Amino acid sequence: xxxxxxxxxxxxxxxxxxxxxxxxxxxxxxxxxxxxxxxxxxxxxxxxxxxxxxxxxxxxxxxxxxxxxxxxxx
Length: 74
Description:
By secondary structure, the protein is mostly helical. The chain has a single domain, classed as Arc Repressor Mutant, subunit A (Orthogonal Bundle), CATH 1.10.10. It has helices at 5-17, 23-29, 39-52, and strands spanning 19-20, 57-59, 70-72. The longest helix has 14 residues, at 39-52. It is globular and about 30 Å long.
């Protein structure tokens, strides 16, 4: 389930464009306090998206990070 303003904003981008590049950076850009957003918060969002779109794929960033990861729905 998509909840919260940050998740809704990023989810809208995902639906509109079919993917979100730099997932962590994009998610943090919508946060009131970017430091309060940790990887677990972003992973919870990814799990919510995968519940709604089982075919969604996550491509992790260069060093396995989420800041530069790409989330796609097919």
